[in-house]
Amino acid sequence: MSTLKIGQGKTYRIQKEAMAEFGYDLQFAMKGGYRLDDQYLAWFPNLMESEDDEFPSLYGNVLKNDGKTLVEIAPDDRRLEKILSDTSTLRIVFARFRGRNYEFKGVFKFDGVDRKRRQTIYTLIAETIDTAKWQKR
Predict the structure, then answer these.
(1) Non-local CB neighbours of 79 within 8 Å, separated by 6+ positions
(2) CA distances from 41 to 26, 49, 54, 67, 89 (A)
(3) pTM surpassing 0.85?
(4) Where exactly are the structural domains of the chain?
(5) Kind of pairing, strands 90-97 and 40-43?
């Protein structure tokens, strides 16, 4: 059984390494997320220190409340609507700050939207996840 847990100290230099936790053998991996099944998405946000920082990628992402809240900031209304078209998917988050490795931050679910600020809010619902069910594909 392979279990990911927040704070276990394991990091991933590239997305391909993290996706191997789910049994994927990718030649190249550099996307914002990978759908694992109908319920889960492995998500790779680049984090900002605060909402006022310059976006490190197309979207801005900020971890708040000691890692219990993740805020995704869309650059425009069209991209916000794209995010909101899929609010039922749970996100297994591997996040990083610029220049650092990816690290498992937990499983998050959609918890609301601030349309004026183009922010989508996600709340931590699990600090661990068993990846065995995806390795058996």
Answers:
(1) 58, 59
(2) 16, 24, 25, 18, 7
(3) yes
(4) 3-135
(5) parallel
